[in-house]
Amino acid sequence: MNDTAIEAVGLTKSYGGSPAVAGIDLRVPRGEVFSLLGPNGAGKSTTVEILEGFRRRDGGTVSVLGEDPGQAGRRWRSRIGIVWQRETMLPKVPVRDLVRHFAGYHPSAHDPDEVVERVGLAAKARALPDSLSGGQRRRLDVALGIVGRPELLFLDEPTTGFDPEARRSFWELIGDLARRGTTIVLTTHYLEEAEALADRVCVLAGGRVRALGAPADLGGRAAARATVSWTEDGGHREVRTREPTRVVAELAARFSGEVPGLGVHRPTLEEIYLSLVSGPAGSGTAGEGTA
Ligand SMILES: Nc1ncnc2c1ncn2[C@@H]1O[C@H](COP(=O)(O)OP(=O)(O)OP(=O)(O)O)[C@@H](O)[C@H]1O
């Protein structure tokens, strides 16, 4: 089996002459959790909808699970799961029956009751979709996206409206699917979600790839200087250093033990992300290139 789930080369799409996707190259190996980040209007949904076969591209080549999504048929579609950004219209059918119904479309679906349980809707199994809260409704969308045991799962801002506990349990669910080999494309505005789940993140801005890499390395993050801070003589002190361990060891020796107010701060993914998307299009440097 081909070990590439998604390959796009030179992908372009314009709306009324304005480029939304301006030449993107992507390769996502099977089994990877790949996260697309970027500000509103960056081109994430357009890219993902082309990969899902719901939007026509203007240029470039695309292969998803070995087929061109623009030409692929129902069998291909049944190998893909989608959790849309916007709520989809659902019939007035209880949660459990709806998940069972969706499972019926797929030859090797998960047990629907287990899926309802996994997304935390067991107590609402008999409820109608209309009666669910926003976060519960989102969990139902997730259940419908995963029940078919997709090889490739697209999640477009899946945890919007989730409370913190629901988000954590959703992360566990996604981690579990990933460990079982599902390839996942996650679009999110939550940097901590990308950090918790993604093997690699791709930052899009202005329809182009600004940076690509593991969350820990993105934009030179791993090599970036850390800030070591402490309190001394009643005042705040800090140094920026590439060797925070050495600085902390020196401080520990100097204070003979606990260093008052000690802190070590490395750039967060959010800080790196903001520095990547704040410049003019094309100014992103670190890690730029082919995904
Ligand atoms: N159907 C459409 N018709 C015209 N312009 C569109 C259409 N869909 C998207 N666009 C434009 O294309 C650009 C990229 O939009 P897209 O929805 O792909 O961005 P996004 O990164 O998904 O944003 P968000 O984070 O807000 O969901 C935007 O400037 C948007 O206004």
From TrEMBL:
Cross-referenced SMART domains, in alphabetical order?
A: AAA (SM00382)
InterPro entries annotated for this entry?
AAA+_ATPase, ABC_transporter-like_ATP-bd, ABC_transporter-like_CS, ABC_transporter_ATP-binding, P-loop_NTPase
- Which protein family is named in the record? Belongs to the ABC transporter superfamily.
Originating organism: Nocardiopsis algeriensis
Membrane topology type, per the record? Peripheral membrane protein
Recorded hits in CDD domains, A to Z, give: ABC_DR_subfamily_A (cd03230)
One BP annotation, GO: response to antibiotic
| One Gene Ontology term of the molecular function aspect | ATP binding
The name this protein goes by in its record:
ABC-2 type transport system ATP-binding protein
